[in-house]
Amino acid sequence: MLTSKQRAQLKTLAASEDTILIIGKGGLTEHTVAEANNALRARELVKGRVLESALLSPREAGQQLCEACRAELVHVIGSRFVLFRRNPEAPKIELVRNNPKNAKKRR
């Protein structure tokens, strides 16, 4: 599960990324899921877009892809969504960690 700081970091990184997944009127197919898996393995951070002719909303498409690819939905804005999945063998993105000094103390 991503923290708010990690989501903010990934949103910033995704802003400069190209949209590589496009979902059209055919919806989510096996080919789309396979392409998402390949892209997540190679990049860890993937930006997708849902065309107006699609029957899914961007949030629905992102959530369904997350379930199919075991990824996390980072961000949905307009017709675009961002997915993240860490590559355990060769991580490319170093996520920020929570600083225990700044964390609220529980009593």
Structural summary, described in words:
By secondary structure, this protein is of the alpha+beta class. The two termini are 24 Å apart. It has a 4-stranded mixed beta sheet, sandwiched between helices. It has one domain (4-84): Translation Initiation Factor IF3 (2-Layer Sandwich). The chain has helices spanning 4-15, 30-43, 58-69; strands at residues 19-23, 45-50, 72-77, 80-84. The protein is globular and about 50 Å long.
Helix-strand layout with pairing:
Blueprint lengths: L3 H12 L3 E5 L6 H14 L1 E6 L7 H12 L2 E6 L2 E5 L23
Parallel strand pairs: 1-2
Antiparallel strand pairs: 2-4, 3-4
Mean pLDDT: 91
Report, as a whole number of angstroms, the end-to-end distance: 24 Å
Computed Rg: 15 Å
Strand content: 15-25%
Uncertain runs: none
Shape: globular
Tally of individual domains: 1
What is this entry, summarized?
This protein is an alpha+beta fold and 107 residues long.
Provide keyphrases for this structure.
single chain, 107 residues, alpha+beta, Translation Initiation Factor IF3, four-stranded mixed beta sheet, 3 helices, 4 strands, 36% helix, globular
